[in-house]
Amino acid sequence: MRYIAAELLFLCAFPLSAAEITRQPLENDTDLISVTGILNDGDEIAFRNLAAASSKALVFLNSEGGDLKAGIEIGRAIRLRGFATATPPGTLCASACALTWLAGSQRFLQPESNIGFHAAYRVVDGKASESGVANALVGAYLNQLGLSDTAIAYVTSAPPEGIAWLTAAKAQAVGITYDAIDEDGPPASEAGKTFPHDPMGAVTAFYSALAAADGETASALVIPEKRGKGPFNEASIHAFYGAMSQPFKLTGTALRGDDNVRVSYEYVTNDGRRCKGRADVQTTYVFGKTLVSRIKVLDGC
């Protein structure tokens, strides 16, 4: 597995486009399939189309999370084709991505890798499903993967607020098996340099998700420990921003310091409440990504 480990660590050291699915050949008739960025509806189709040309592959996962259905369906395709999955040191594979990682016929992980589970949530026919409903879908998927009852209980009981990190001790306790990546390539410290520090890009993407009432994408752009909490709750985002007579519109952004962005916006709710507001948004560079960590509303809305 040394050539695979080297390739994984090499890829981590250079920027990759968000939500990008690519394939490249390795040795011994093995392909490396990279899934990078927030998972969106339809990514499962792109993955299946690309994976159809591979008879043997290692799927490299570096994703904040995103669409639950996409994560599950990519996982099903991985298991059907017998592909392995990996999350190298310094990268993040959370929420829907973590479910995809579980599908590997062989799973690879390092102590510095970050696999995190979060209570499932999705929108069905325009309505937000409660975490219990979504977790039923997750439970059925995990059962198809052949995970133990203990492992299924652990994953489906992940907190609705924050992230449950998969440690070596926890994996052993619940019966989730994996192998370590043999580090024979660029230094592991380089693995965290996946994307450039970009507060403006991260904040703009976050508010674009709010405008679309897309709680899954917005949550994926928040630091893991604050996902599902208060204004970062997926169901609350969908319910509030999906009930506008004049949709939410981002009207301005300005960088204030190294990590903070001031935004201005406007919207009108269905009950006629009009807002022209501003907020200071703090970002944090972690796991090789710029994520939203705090929002301070300045004008009461």
TrEMBL record:
<feature type="signal peptide">
    <location>
        <begin position="1"/>
        <end position="18"/>
    </location>
</feature>
<dbReference type="InterPro" id="IPR029045">
    <property type="entry name" value="ClpP/crotonase-like_dom_sf"/>
</dbReference>
<keyword id="KW-0732">Signal</keyword>
<protein>
    <recommendedName>
        <fullName>Peptidase</fullName>
    </recommendedName>
</protein>
